[in-house]
Specification:
The chain is α/β, with parallel strands linked by helices. The chain has seven helices and 27 strands. It has two domains: 130 residues, Acyl-CoA thioester hydrolase/BAAT N-terminal domain (Immunoglobulin-like, Sandwich), CATH 2.60.40.2240; 276 residues, Rossmann fold (3-Layer(aba) Sandwich).
Length: 431
Amino acid sequence: MLKFAVTHFARNTLAKMHYSSGVSIRLLPSNKCSFEDPVHVTVSGLNPQQRVVLRSKITDEKGLVFKASATYQADNSGQVDLNRDSSLGGSFTGVEPMGLFWALKADVVSCKFALTDVTRTQLVDLECVSDDKVIAKVTNERHCIADGIRRIPVTEGRIRGTLFMPPGKGSFPGILDTNVFRGAPFELRAALLAKRGFAVLALAFQGYQDLPKKADKFHLEYFEEGIDFLRQQPEVKDQKIGLVSISKSGDLALSMATFLPGISATVCVNGCNANTVIPIYYKDICVPPLMFDVKRSKMTPLGLLDIGDCMNDPMSKEGLPSVIPVERASGQFMFIVSEADRNWQSVYYAKLACDRLKAHGKNNYELVKYEKAGHFIEVPYMPFCLANFHAAANHVIFFGGEPKAHSEAQCDAWQRIVNFFQKTLSCNTLL
């Protein structure tokens, strides 16, 4: 019993010595922040010129662990400041204030960070390591949903999704977000937009609750019901409505902006100017799908399937009937595209849409291009996705891009999206 007590005391003493060495990691302005916010990372209490390794780690909803690390050398006062100091090696090099976040990476190549539950705080553990010993540790709590934001599950008539409402009585401009992940609405972007003063409906359209697991056709009337539901909210009544979309939901958003009345602004991220894969119906209108040929796929040096050239050309004789007549839309457009996107030819499609608008005497569009970003431009500091399973291809595919450039694109695009909606929907910013 005495031996156990001594051993237990010794362990506790060593633990206290381990973390009371005077070394500490600070996150400014706080250990807690919104998911899209940067933090200022500093380490103090080191020996002058001491070399240490800083490590970061986050675990997603599926239990997959994403890690990053970098080596730093303290200054003469024993401090490391990521806003000032260069990484000497590791997951990144050079001065990268948020490198420990944008460089987070899983051991497996084909994966996408799973985040569907916005009520769950995302925890990023940071450690300072010297001689293989952890000498300081801190956890960054990254909140997906801000205080006061109301998250309301929606099962109204046929529509399924989640409504995010800013605090207060309104009035708030409305946004319909049609991105889905693993069948569920992608709520993170919707929650963060609600923080900025928008009422956002994250609308599911397949594979969620009692919706069809896999759609063989889309009826715009379903999306119209979602927009009408948003308009009918007392906090949104008489306000403008916007759309935000990515990938396949991009052509759905362009179709809504074209055929449904009263859409004031549309953001299309790495989408297509033609309806793809699944036919769209609205009243007596049918837009046939632009299809693809998997025979045009190729393998990357990493052994990943590249389908970037598989989609048929919208300007071909067969493709033209699938092109969405965006010139009929009355609202504003923002096209955000990645030049390294290998899901499909996003830059080409956006240029075709802009050229079509211009040819009809319209200047209601903005085109934003990112040279080395990949397909999934989402919110700031979402871990980079190089490859993942693609439902239409029924295979793991290569999405393209480089982690650092992609992270910079996500940060820049996010602010552009917020500014675009604030301008076109006349919204007051909430800090």
